[in-house]
Design a protein that fits this description.
Elements lengths: L2 H9 L3 H21 L4 H16 L7 H11 L5 H8 L5 H12 L3 H15 L7 H11 L1
Helix pairs in contact: 2-3, 2-4, 2-7, 3-7, 7-8
Length: 140
């Protein structure tokens, strides 16, 4: 399957499907990190940084992404809080640090990280070229 077909599948999901897919991916990532001896706060911070990385790829944070994030992780961030959380994800040093962290993960966990991020950014029913490029770089 080509990446474009994969992206379209994510865009075509209902909100409920996105929640289920993202929750499975997040649980898998959390489990893998905990097995590696990483504490709960650090694993949650990693997931929020993944979202910061993906959401800021197109420099457009949406209320739909915020709602999905809240539904997936059981948080209750306001849009302003979510915006502030994801602001700065386009900083080159942040991107480099996250790329190195993700690159060090086993391939299965990388796929789950990308699934989690891709599901959240598809919440607005579109995946931009910048978002696609980030996804392909991580899995590449």
């Amino acid at each position: 399957m080509e990446f474009r077909e994969l992206y379209q599948q994510y865009v075509n999901q209902s909100h409920e499907q996105r929640v289920a897919v993202a929750q499975r991916a997040a649980a898998s990532v959390l489990s893998a990190l905990k097995e590696g001896g990483i504490d709960d706060d650090t694993t949650f911070n990693f997931l929020t940084n993944v979202i910061k990385l993906f959401v800021s790829a197109d420099r457009n944070c949406t209320e739909l992404e915020c709602k999905l994030f809240n539904d997936v992780l059981g948080t209750s961030l306001t849009y302003e809080q979510f915006y502030n959380l994801t602001n700065g994800g386009g900083d080159p040093s942040f991107i480099q640090a996250m790329d190195e962290l993700i690159d060090a993960l086993p391939d299965e966990v990388k796929v789950d990280v990308c699934t989690f991020g891709l599901t959240i950014i598809a919440a607005d029913d579109t995946i931009t070229g910048a978002e696609q490029a980030l996804f392909e770089k991580i899995l590449g």
